UniProtKB/TrEMBL annotation:
Broadest EC class assigned to this enzyme: oxidoreductase
Keywords associated with the record: Dioxygenase, Iron, Metal-binding, Oxidoreductase
EC number: 1.14.11.33
Protein's UniProt name: Alkylated DNA repair protein (DNA oxidative demethylase)
Entry's Gene Ontology molecular function annotations: broad specificity oxidative DNA demethylase activity
Ranges in coiled-coil conformation: none
Xref: PROSITE patterns: FE2OG_OXY
Cofactors named for this entry: Fe(2+)
Organism name: Rhodanobacter soli
Entry-linked InterPro entries: Alkb, AlkB-like, AlkB-like_sf, Oxoglu/Fe-dep_dioxygenase_dom
Length: 218
């Protein structure tokens, strides 16, 4: 039935894996199969290390709220940016990296061509309507040959993917609940950010977006 197939093809959501550039791959919906395990693990982390707004070295309060899981956590304060094994708010180690987090990050990295990825840090960002993340590079990690895996949950966002120079023109990439992106190789040091979120609602996460970024920091 040619016509039925044509209708099916026209109506099906055309959301396939896409390569943004060499080293950057969007895996649409890759996290959906582990959604329940991820959200359960997230609740455990947030109970031990609540979201908080960090201050940049320049003294500005970040609009993104953050927490971490794993042996190392990313922190910012008046002294600078760094990875630290201790949560400065609790004085205790960050919550441990959930097995479901490790598995998803390793599977996504392997799928994108980075076999053997074992993250030691998961930075967790929470966005609400109006929250943005200005263009930056992630260069506080020791081995820039290791990729970063990001997982988007909750309300959608528009991700900005720039070049190696802050002034390079940025592409806009919509990211939805369950999308996973793997950034490595020549994409690893590209400038990136998130446009201010539009007010929205997600049935499971409510009025926010949560982004997990898995890193090999040490
Ligand atoms: C491209 N987070 O935490 S994830 C960050 O949606 C961060 O919360 C954003 O940028 C967020 O540092 C974007 C996507 C991402 C993460 C790291 C990258 C893209 C990247 C590193 C290099 C190039
Ligand atoms: Fe980043």
């Amino acid at each position: 039935m040619i016509t039925a197939d044509l209708f099916a093809a026209a109506l099906a959501p055309v959301r396939q894996d896409e390569s943004l550039c060499e080293g950057a791959m969007v895996l649409r919906g890759f996290a959906l199969a582990s959604e329940a395990a991820l959200l359960q693990a997230l609740d455990v982390i947030v109970a031990q290390a609540p979201f908080r707004h960090l201050v940049t070295p320049g003294g500005f309060r970040m609009s993104v709220a953050m927490t971490n899981a794993g042996p190392l956590g990313w922190v910012s304060d008046r002294r600078g940016y760094r990875y630290d094994p201790i949560d400065p708010d609790s004085g205790k180690p960050w919550p441990s990296m959930p097995a479901a987090f490790l598995r998803l990050a390793a599977e996504a990295a392997a799928y994108a061509g980075f076999a053997g990825f074992v993250p030691d840090a998961c930075l967790i960002n929470r966005y609400e309507a109006g929250t943005r993340l200005s263009l930056h590079q992630d260069r506080d990690e020791h081995d820039l040959g290791q990729p970063i895996v990001s997982v988007s949950l909750g309300i959608p966002a528009v991700f900005l993917f720039g070049g190696l120079q802050r002034s390079d023109r940025a592409q806009r990439v919509p990211l939805a609940h369950g999308d996973v992106v793997v950034w490595g190789g020549p994409a690893r040091l590209r400038y990136h950010g998130v446009l201010p979120l539009k007010p929205n609602h997600h049935d499971v996460l409510g009025d926010c977006r949560i982004n997990l970024t898995f890193r090999r920091a040490s």
